Amino acid sequence: MTQKNLITLFTLLICCMGLGACKEKDNEQPVEVKLGITKTVDLLIGDTYKLEVNVSPKDLKVTFESTNTQIVTVSEQGILKAIAEGQAEVKATAGGVTKVCKVSVTKPDDIDKSRYLGLDASAEDQKYFAPIYIPTEEEFVPDNLHFFKSAVSPYGWIYQQQEPEAEKLLYYFASPRKLDDNGKEIPEEAQFCMDALIYNHSIPGAPLHIKLIPNKHYPKDYMADPDTFTNPDDLDVQEALLEIMKHYGFTEDAHFTKLAGDSAYEAYNTKFDPKVPLRGVMFTEKKGDAYELTFQISYGRR
């Protein structure tokens, strides 16, 4: 075979391989892009809110855009910032697919500053002991969500909508989940002492009460009588937990006790009404091999 024929054959072979590769590419199925975001958000002026975004493929970049930055802005991480009263849309785009979140921004209600616990603490302390609002019993009712958001959102608590049945019973606020406005983890010393603030306004068979809970379990029953501890480290943990109650003013008639068989620490706060004080109870409940902690606030003595 001559050199010329070899060159011709080699050229034809390359062309055939190229055509085969092109055919394979033509047969490849296009990647389906799926994108979902929060459909509606109601914010107060000054609020921040991180959009819930689900995208597939997961490594696909999502970009965000506000239709009116005078009403609401959005960061590269999908964090909204409510600027002024009004309506706007935030668009999320990935792989040619765009979804829209409708945002409504309203003015907060006027709130009585004297009804807070922890508001008189230093700004540094408030990074850990976030102020909590104690509603009057007249305010502590269903269909009053805007008022409660106005009361606690300015201090970092983030409203989280629950399932419809739970929504009828309570208002649920979460801590900032240990993230700053840019979605980065904040130092441990600047995290809230409790992860959830729950206003239970309509729990069947239960009086009005507020719950603060950490989103973790403890290896020991740290509300047990301190005389039962033999390790000084356990006493340190217990004291740190009780410091939360003391910070919010629950210091009167303080004692360890048992409630329905669970270990508890009980104390009262007479700030608003010495005759009908606030009752604070920090108690543990056994959950498997660990203990769940709750700090509960109610009205009146028991």
TrEMBL record:
Pfam families assigned: Big_2 (PF02368)
Span of domain BIG2: 31-104
Membrane-traversing stretches: none
SUPFAM superfamilies reported for this sequence: Invasin/intimin cell-adhesion fragments
Protein name, as recorded: Ig domain protein group 2 domain protein
Organism, as annotated: Porphyromonas asaccharolytica (strain ATCC 25260 / DSM 20707 / BCRC 10618 / CCUG 7834 / JCM 6326 / LMG 13178 / VPI 4198 / B440)
